[in-house]
């Protein structure tokens, strides 16, 4: 069991609670291309992980927002 995460992507939105659900979410794409915005289920803007996928290539960006 993992912390529930929201995967928003071109094909919709998935809430993943297990490693198998994460794998299934990453398998969704439109013609081999997709963009995933991953965050916790609290629907806060930060932190989040962005994954751009094109075939077997991926670009990953992690964004954190720090308050002083």
Question: Which descriptors apply to this entry?
Answer:
single chain, 68 residues, globular, five-stranded antiparallel sheet
What features would you describe in this structure?
The chain is mainly beta and 68 residues long. Helix content is 12%, strand content 47%. It is built from one helix and five strands, in the order ββαβββ. It has one helix at residues 19-26, and strands at 5-9, 12-16, 33-40, 48-54, 57-63. Strands 2-1-3-4-5 form a five-stranded antiparallel β-sheet, with helices on one face. β1 (5-9) and β2 (12-16) form a beta hairpin. The longest helix is centred in the N-terminal third of the chain and has 8 residues, at 19-26. The radius of gyration is 12 Å and the shape is globular. The N and C termini lie far apart (32 Å). The relative contact order is 0.21.
